[in-house]
Design goal:
The structure holds two protein chains of two kinds.
Chain A: H1 5-20, H2 22-51, E1 55-56, E2 59-60, H3 61-78, H4 87-92, H5 96-100, H6 105-134, H7 145-171, H8 180-194, H9 205-211, H10 216-219, H11 221-228, H12 233-264
Chain B: E1 2-15, H1 19-28, E2 31-45, E3 50-54, H2 61-69, E4 76-81, H3 91-94, E5 97-101, H4 113-123, H5 128-142, H6 157-169, E6 175-179, H7 187-204, E7 207-211, H8 215-221, E8 224-229, E9 232-238, H9 239-246, E10 249-256, H10 262-268, E11 275-279, E12 282-288, H11 292-302, E13 305-312, H12 315-325
Parallel strand pairs in B: 3-7, 3-8, 5-6, 6-7
Antiparallel strand pairs in B: 1-2, 1-4, 8-9, 10-12, 10-13, 11-12
Classes of the chains: A mainly alpha, B alpha/beta.
């Protein structure tokens, strides 16, 4: 079907659904943000004090706190829907919908996924706004409009990359009775190796050069570099192509699993 | 038109022994057992025909419906529905087909039914005026107009079934699979759904396959029935023929004025004249057709009878009898 107008409907419907559960949304938002600030502030203040330095590996205290404010939300943008968003449909038989209605499963899921991402994207700038209003001292770094625009573009692609990876772990549910831990582990690996827990600048050099053969640095480390304006345009272009490569790579694996899995799907009940 | 040849579906399920040790064991070793859900089935359904699919739980009805609608893949055999192979899941096929499962909601739970319909309008690409005409017609027939703006999860079971029916028929499908559409509904709602299906059929004449445990559904809606047992068809033919061929008995119901001798009467009743059941002052005799007058005469001669009726046996009794008996051919 060429007409994709239905995806707009799905997108709007999903946004409405998210707003319906707004209490959960704000608790999650405020809770996580406050925790990130407190933990990163005290931890890194102590580290900076013990080293007696004002800057470490290109990070001032100011900048690293901003980093730790942004990164959890970037992860959330990329991780759109919760673990279980696809596997649950396989387990309880809701997947039938996608097999019965003349619509594409991936298109549908990507649309709902991006609806969630949109919301987190709004959160991201809310937090950044609050930071710049009250906490920013302006010495160590600044954001330019062009960088934030490129950042937005890069984040959208990386969200698609992550969606494809997410779909692989979720589709394992065709065979496994529970994929929750697989989802949790994947998330942890992406966060850790992507630089969400500790910036990659603090990783040993050999590890970083190895990591560049994996998709992980392109998911979190790379967009942050773009945001800080620490990367040349030619490198942005190159990295974007690498991200697209990984997206296609994961899509192919996901599609193979989907094609095999649909033979095992029982639609619940005999 | 639907054509099914040599259709077989075998499910592989893993067996887990009960208890904690069983779970630990299954971490390392898994025993798989094969369950034949559908066994070498052949079936032809013509345009506009409605068939009733009857069978006990686990007989293979739902599996067959799922294969025909393209949700699951068969192990072997071929299926053609409107010229399509269902599990190719071509959009052209899915545009013309619909499946309603009484036990499984398909509409979006968190949203009002109308929102779901509007999305389906885009998915099926239904023109604006046609869409609102359908909504008007369906909601009118099902008497559910006021509930379309309520979240699906907040509807009663009967109301939910009605909006599910609407969702399934909004694009005027040519093939409709109804898997227990009246399950769990109260008698009024069951009747309303049946009446609706009847009028819908009159209006649009789609192929319909109906599975139900309620004989009223089958009797009122289907001219042809297929009885399935352990994955195989044991009867495929008209409902009328079932009555003609299998209704070997007639049912005599009688009320007597004397209570005391009923057990004696039952004991002394000649076996060849039929089988007697008693509840308080009422008697029921399932008597062979050719002996029915004889049985009635015997009854009147031996008991003081206040009231007496002779009727055809209930279709549900006949089908239960066939299911117990196993494979039969139509000519039998």
């Amino acid at each position: 079907m060429n007409n994709n107008k239905w995806t707009q409907h799905v997108y709007a419907m999903e946004l409405r659904k998210i707003i319906t559960y707004r209490a959960d949304f704000w608790v999650n938002f405020i809770g996580q943000t406050i925790f990130s600030i407190i933990i990163s502030y005290y931890l890194w203040q102590a580290i900076f004090a013990s080293q007696g330095a004002t800057s470490m590996k290109g990070f001032s205290l100011d900048k690293i706190i901003f980093y730790y404010l942004m990164v959890p939300i970037i992860s959330r943008i990329q991780q759109g829907e919760m673990i279980g968003s696809i596997s649950r449909e396989i387990y309880d038989g809701s997947l039938n919908k996608f097999l019965l209605y003349p619509m594409n499963f991936y298109k549908y899921k990507i649309t709902t996924y991006f609806a969630h991402s949109t919301f987190y994207y709004v959160q991201l700038w809310l937090i950044a706004f609050v930071y710049f209003l009250f906490f920013h001292r302006g010495e160590s770094f600044n954001l330019s409009i062009s960088n934030t625009l490129i950042f937005t573009f890069v984040i959208s692609i990386s969200t698609l990359t992550y969606f494809m990876l997410h779909s692989i772990t979720e589709l394992i549910a065709f065979w496994a009775d529970n994929i929750w831990s697989l989802g949790v582990i994947t998330r942890f690996i992406v966060r850790f190796l992507g630089g969400a827990l500790i910036p990659l600048a603090f990783f040993p050099e050999w590890a970083v050069s190895l990591l560049y053969y994996t998709p992980f640095p392109y998911l979190i480390h790379f967009p942050m570099k773009v945001l800080f304006g620490e990367i040349e345009y030619s490198m942005i272009l190159q990295n974007t192509f690498i991200l697209i490569f990984w997206t296609i790579f994961f899509y192919i694996i996901s599609k193979v699993i989907w094609n095999k899995g649909k033979y095992s799907y029982t639609g619940v009940g005999i | 038109m639907i054509e099914v040849k040599g259709l077989t579906k075998v499910f592989k399920v893993h067996k887990k022994e009960p208890g904690f040790m069983g779970s630990v064991k299954s971490l390392f070793f898994r025993k798989h057992i094969s369950k034949v859900a559908v066994d070498n089935i052949n079936l032809t359904i013509n345009a506009g025909e409605i068939i009733g699919l009857i069978g006990a739980n686990g007989a293979g009805k739902t599996t067959l419906t799922k294969i025909l609608s393209g949700i699951i893949h068969p192990t072997s055999g071929s299926v053609s529905v409107l010229g399509f192979n269902p599990w190719d899941r071509k959009n052209e096929y899915r545009q013309q087909m619909s499946l309603i499962m009484g036990q499984k909601a398909q509409l979006w739970w968190d949203l009002p039914a109308m929102d779901g319909f509007l999305l389906l309008k885009e998915i099926y690409q239904i023109p604006e005026n046609e869409f609102y005409e359908s909504i008007e017609y369906l909601s009118e027939c099902l008497m559910i107009k006021d509930q379309l703006k309520v979240q699906v999860r907040k509807l009663s079971l009967g109301e939910r079934m009605k909006v599910e029916l609407m969702a399934a028929l909004i694009h005027k499908p040519k093939v409709v699979f109804l898997d227990e559409p009246t399950i769990g509904l109260d008698l009024m709602a069951q009747k309303a759904v049946r009446e609706f299906i009847k009028s819908y059929r009159k209006e649009f004449n789609p192929i319909m396959i109906l599975t139900s445990h309620y004989m009223e559904d089958i009797e009122e809606l289907c001219e042809r029935v297929v009885i399935i047992k352990d994955g195989s068809f044991i009867y495929d033919g008209s409902l009328e023929k079932i009555k003609d061929n299998y209704a070997k008995n007639k049912l005599i119901t009688a009320t007597t004025t004397e209570e005391k001798d009923l057990q004696d009467f039952k004991a002394s009743f000649p076996k060849e004249l039929g089988e007697v059941t008693i509840s308080e002052l009422k008697l029921e005799i399932h008597s062979p057709r050719e002996k029915v007058m004889e049985a009635a005469t015997y009854l009147m001669n031996n008991l003081a009878i206040k009231d007496l009726n002779i009727n055809e046996e209930q279709i549900s009794d006949i089908i239960e009898h066939i299911m117990r008996q196993g494979k039969v051919s139509e000519q039998q």
